Amino acid sequence: MKPPVAKRIPHPHELHGDVREDDFYWLKDRSNPEVIDYLEEENRYYDEIMLPLEAQTEQIYQSMVDRVPDSEVKVPVQHGPYFYYSRLDKDKQYPIYARKHAASRELLPNSAEEVILDLNELAVDGEYLSVTMQRITTDHNRLAYLENRDGTDRYTIHVKDMKTGELLPDRIPDVYLYGSMEWSRCGEYIFYITVDESQRPYQLWRHRLGSEIGSDQLIFEEKDITFTLSMYKSLSGKFIFVHSRSKTTSEVRLIDADSPLSPLQLIDERREGIEYDVEDWGDKLLILTNEGAPNFQLLCCPLSDLQTRTKVMEYSEDRYLQAMYPFRDRLVIFGRENGLTQIWLLRDDELERIEWDEPLYTVSILSGQSYKTNEVLIQYDSLLTPKTTYGLNLLTGEKHRLQVAPVRGEYDRSRFRQEQLWAVAEDGVKVPMTAVYRKDALENGPAPLILHGYGSYGANSDPYFDPYRLPLLEKGIIFVTVQVRGGSEMGRAWYEDGKMGKKRNTFTDFIVAAKYLMEQGYTTSSKMAARGGSAGGLLVGAVANIAGELFKVIVPAVPFVDVVTTMLDATIPLTTLEWDEWGNPQNREDYFYMKSYSPYDNVEAKDYPHMYVTTGLNDPRVAYWEPAKWVARLRSLKTDNNIIVLKTNMGAGHFGVSGRFNHLKEAAACYAFILDKLGIGIK
Fold it and tell me: What is the pLDDT of residue 107?
């Protein structure tokens, strides 16, 4: 079967005296039956190409399924009179959320389990399901949760009576997928945030339980189209914090959780470039801000006088402070130092870092913990260590291991190596990488290698343990992640140095990393694959144009590749929120800079690697037409015989299919394609 050929309809874009030809613009109209026909033809071509790889795909899939534990039970988190947790049974697609009534963790095994929400009962075979937020009332008698069945960012609130197990008639649509729902302390009111036509979260509403949705009250509307709304309840439960936030600026308001009808209270008015978060701690308000401190500093003020600010401790350029957890007995800080996630305890106005044994690791503080706890639960893992939960004593600073996530099948960590590598960028900056591989993988010379990157929004690519990666590691595959600029692995400046007019640093960092790996004998261009998703798809898409010869195969997942066209269309979901990340092409300088790296605008008549491209028809973040147009243009111009496939999920969005085993099937197919192009057989 020959690859589909999309028809060409001239559609020039003219701006700033420049013309961009866009012959595949017509693919944007999903109401056009020809568009759906074309996407389905691409899917048929994908199926045809993957048909000879069915056995390899099935073998990889089964090797992953063999790693699925019989049962995975998260460490219970105490919240009031209950311990809350989730479990995932081997034969289930989705987790089961449950609780047990107990006075102490030791009593849990003897307590009866009460299922709060079984996502497997909500799921319909072959259909999409996503449940994001869950919020329980203070009296633990009602559960509110967000549900979506089409892959968009429009979720619906459902409320469950925990005594009867029945759903209440209160059903609230068009709510954003996270940071968008909280209960008042009395449990009679739900505050929620809805989205506009472009799926931007922008309106805060108050709903009285049992009342008609039409009578809900609009509390606040964020009218600036470059800002979004979100909210979360403070750790103590006293306040609900309502955030207006752009990529560079924030503004916070308070709702008194005990007085749900009281007006919002503004903390600090927004000022361009100033970001801050707040928490309450006793009679004080804590403020984490970048004002005068690029890596953020911690201030406090009395709740009775929000304008009198004092430093909690001295600012340090070496620490990037990202979150605060004010428990009753101790303040815990989360952030980054030395390129790694870190946790600190505040003692006598000084931060005391929690130490770990491995040189590479990722730590985080589990959500939903009680303000009154004296033992904080911390999750730890590395490229070699499975997810491990520790209890950290807030008074002594001592930690003890509570649980290690089970790894089914044989796993001898001594057979593998993890290491940190450094490449030198074009401007002399050292770019970090994390690598994991079987210790003998390089004994016979350069090995097959999969290089991953992201590098946008300050999001970090930290080392983590993946049991489903083990079958590939066993075959001698090396996995490397490049922590390119645009993330914040090395601090806030690392992010600032990879956005807007410095975005090309993200791509060149990835390229020098690939060259370093070849120079050091880890791999060769004929044995290397590149992977990236969403903004990481932009990364590898740009690299395909700039230095595609370095790779045998490239895997852009839901890739953001038509940068200029999308950023010019304010009607597209979330576009206006991105101007502070990429630039606004209505500005001449931004336009030409963005055009210089946009993957779609820079496709040339030259050889390209094999490509495995994915998208979702209902994706609100990266519209399906971006990868569809890009693939069509690549096919029309490339001069090689390499294969490009485009897989469109016709019933899901940005995050692909739902369900654990469905995800594994998708991953197995992708790996089968990569290994086939790298010339690696499956035994």
Answer: 46
